[in-house]
Amino acid sequence: MLHFIQILIHFKRRTLPLLCLICFSGIIQKSFAQPFLDLLHTSYTTNPGRYFGKSIPGDKSLTYLNVSTTLPILLKNKKDAIVLSPFFEKWATTTLPPFAKSRHYGAGLPVSLFKSSGSEHWSFVFTLIPRINTDQFNNTDKFQLGGAIQVNYKTDSSLTYKFGIYINDDLFGLFVMPLGGIDWRIDRNNSLFGVLPGNLKYEHRFSNIFYGGGSFRAITNSYSKGNEYWRIDENEAGLFTDVYFSKNLVLNLEGGHSISRRIRTGTSRRNYVDWQMKDDFYIRTGLVVRLRLDRRREGNN
User: Fold this and answer.
1) pTM of the full predicted structure?
2) Contacts of 204 (CB under 8 A, 6+ apart)
């Protein structure tokens, strides 16, 4: 009898998270046209220019490491959900030569409420973003708090428009940005989705193993640097391919070029020093644990 109870406990531990995830993916399918949900995402970005003799002494090379997860919690009404999205990131710049490095780290726990409405066309996302951005993690007084409100309007099962606003208490001052996005399943093999100015992606399915397309992303963040801040404005446009080793394990490869890259160090929005960073090609590699929502939708048709 004891052995049977242990088996039941083990079964529940293994299946309950999966059942919750399946239910949550159903919410996403009904509310959005977004084709996938990344449960775990790791990526590393580097600028290869210095390796091909492009750089000269004094130039700076930029690298970026990111690890993030998506942890959905289905609410009792089976229509709404809370999503935890913890992340860790590391920026590093290298001056060529003498190859001096500057490193900055970020860690945060965005919490989002996916809220349905009385209408099948409207839904909402409320996000709170507590984070620490610093050049050393013992510097705990550099806490930042931000958030976003997003309104989604679904015209039909394949198209959703998004509108909202993002606010963050950055170290250089209050940062406010309007948001506009789209989740559009153009057809069985093509999708366009994202929220600008943050990101936008076009994805084409060549097969169930190979996907590819184009992407754009824009990043604005500030990190403590002693009594000053370190601010990065990074915009990237590139081409990507996703290779599915299995149903849920994905290798992501991307290459492109930065646009209007800018790094500053200062004490306020008006008092800063420009690092004179040059735009450069970038290469990104990533390993992702992904749940494809469009395959589930096709399986239900």
Assistant:
1) 0.83
2) 189, 190, 211, 212, 213
